[in-house]
Amino acid sequence: MNPVENSTILVVDDTSENRKLLSRILVNAGYRVTAAKDGASAIELAGSLSPDLILLDIQMPELDGFATIAALKEQEETRDLPVIFISALDNLDDKISAFRSGGVDYILKPFDIEEVLARVKNHLSIHNLQVQLEQANLDLAERVAALSRSQKLLRERERKLKAFIDALPNLSFVYDGNGKYIEVLANEETLLAARAVDLLGRRIDETLPPEAAAVILSAIRQVILSGKTRVVEYRIPVLNGEERWFEAHLSLMESGPQSQARVVLVATDISERVSLYEKVQKLANLDPLTGCYNRRHFLHLAEQELERVQRYQRPLSLLMIDIDHFKAFNDRFGHQVGDEVLSTLVEVCQRNLRSVDLFGRYGGEEFIALLPETSLDDALRTGDRLQRRIRETRTAMPAGQLAITVSIGVSGFNTGDPCPDRIEILISQADQALYDAKAAGRDCLRPMRT
User: Fold this and answer.
1) Nearest alpha carbon to residue 193 among 234, 232, 154
2) Backbone dihedral region for residue 11 (phi beyond 0: left; psi -120 to 50: alpha; all else: beta)
3) What's the farthest any 2 CA atoms get from each other in the chain?
4) Fold observed for domain 286-447
5) Which residue has the higher pLDDT, 92 or 379?
6) What pLDDT score was predicted for residue 168?
7) I need a labelling partner for 300 at 20 to 30 A (CA). Which of 182, 183, 232, 370 fits?
8) Which fold has domain 158-275?
């Protein structure tokens, strides 16, 4: 059985009808479901059941959703549980508060069944990958611990380094203080940068890429100076044609002048662990449908950019983009066509924005773009260009070609203007401008109010 579909979900809502509806939807999808009617019960159940995901209502008596998640974050056994807020509150401040409190997503009531199932599956997948990554790290730590115990035992039984190296199932090297290969032992020569016979007598900086060579040479010198073991990671192309990641443990074998010192390096291939970590990062940062930044990661990057422009007093602008009459597209043509419309919009926007611009999905059919080093006037021109490109684009569907339009709100400040201290201020200004654009009949662009 799919481990994601077999997951346990805790539904928390003070309304019995909502609990029953969500429970029925999730059970029919193959999940195990437990329900709680208030925050206190949710905290107790989360601690005893360790669910894989929590669906949490915000508006509840006594302990509301924000107080409940705060209590969960205080307990070690529940602090890492993913929480999706489900609420009728459509206020921007409430949504921002939900994400700041530690929520991973926000679903509006009345909710769409397909949307709930899609978001639940997405976050369960992310959580499952995170658990796998943690287990991989635990397994790796156990391997390192086992290796250290073996090293100690071998040192006690025999002081000869060669016997110790031959007993290891990893790539093993002995270098002098200049990084010259003294010995090379490998059970899998395809994981070497070159044949062992071709490495002997040569230096690291002659055989490895500059970045990897610099990392290892620096570690060799530190081991010789301090006598302490060092651990480094590096990436190199190997004989089988691939690029592989390695974790290397370096220890002092013999001290002395640089050319006479000896350092042993034991390298372990960690490419699978790195690949898993990159997959988790991608799932955590990107919108699964369109591939652009998700809201959480966009806000994180936008805050960093705001700090930069504050420091250097540079201009910055922001666009809020909303597809006109998107609900009508979904109602008339179905969600599959709606998904195609969203993906097409993202492709057009990313193709017509600069590589330094940030672009993300803010929620539903609403998208957001941050334009560094861009004055308000230039941002208006950019928004006008995006509108024209989107208007000219057609989305293919069984019945023919579908054209869409967007409304855009623009906010920003020029060099020398007062700089807001929070990115939410720029977002709020652009959101108000977007409201003005919709009020003006849609398919138009409006700057922030002054």
Assistant:
1) 234
2) beta
3) 84
4) Alpha-Beta Plaits (3.30.70)
5) 379
6) 56
7) 232
8) Beta-Lactamase (3.30.450)
In terms of DSSP bridges, do strands 243-254 and 262-269 run parallel, antiparallel, or are they unpaired?
antiparallel
Q: Is 172 exposed, middle or buried (0-12, 13-18, 19+ CB in 10 A)?
A: buried
pLDDT band for position 336 (50/70/90)? confident
Alpha-carbon span 107 to 83, nearest angstrom: 11
What residues contact residue 106 under an 8 Å CB cut-off, 6+ apart?
84, 85, 87, 95, 98, 99, 363
Q: How far is CA 404 from the centre of its chain?
A: 30
- What pLDDT, on the 0 to 100 scale, is given for residue 378? 95
- The DSSP 8-state label assigned to residue 421 in this structure reads S
- Amino acid (1-letter code) at residue 384: D
What is the average pLDDT across 339-368?
93
Query: Do 174 and 264 contact (CB within 8 A), yes or no?
Result: yes
Structure tokens at 148: 């250290």
d(CA 302, CA 299): 5
For residue 144, the tally of other CB atoms under 10 A from its CB is: 14
The CATH homologous superfamily of the domain defined by 8-115:
Response regulator (3.40.50.2300)
Q: Which two tokens stand for residue 409?
A: 């709100």
Measured in whole angstroms, the distance separating CA 77 from the mean position of its chain's CA atoms is 23
Return the minimum-mean-pLDDT range out of 131-135, 263-267, 381-385.
Answer: 131-135
Burial environment of residue 363 by CB neighbours within 10 A (0 to 12, 13 to 18, 19 or more):
middle
Q: Where are the alpha helices (DSSP H) in 158-270?
A: 161-166, 196-199, 204-207, 210-226
Where do the domains of the chain lie? Answer: 8-115, 158-275, 286-447
Closest residue by Cα to residue 335 from 189, 128, 178, 117: 117
Greatest mean pLDDT among 150-159, 210-219, 395-404 lies in 210-219
pLDDT given at position 1? 41
